[in-house]
Amino acid sequence: MNYSKKITEAVAEEFAAKRYEWDSLKKQRLKEVYSLCPEIKEIDIALSDVGLKIARATLMGKVGLSERIESIKNDNLKLQKRRGELLCSLGFDEGYTDPPHSCEKCADTGYVGVKLCSCYREALIKKAYECSGLGNLLFSQSFENFSLDSLEGEDRERMEQYYSSLVKYADEFSVKTAASLLMVGGTGLGKTHLSSAVAKRIIDRGFDVVYENAQNIFFDFERDRFSDRFSGEEPVSFKYLDCDLLIIDDLGSEMISSFSVSCLYNLINSRLNKGLPIIVSTNFTSEALRKKYDDRITSRLFGEFTILLFTGKDQRRKKLSKK
Ligand SMILES: [Zn+2]
Question: How many angstroms is it from 111 CA to the middle of ligand 1?
Answer without folding.
Answer: 7
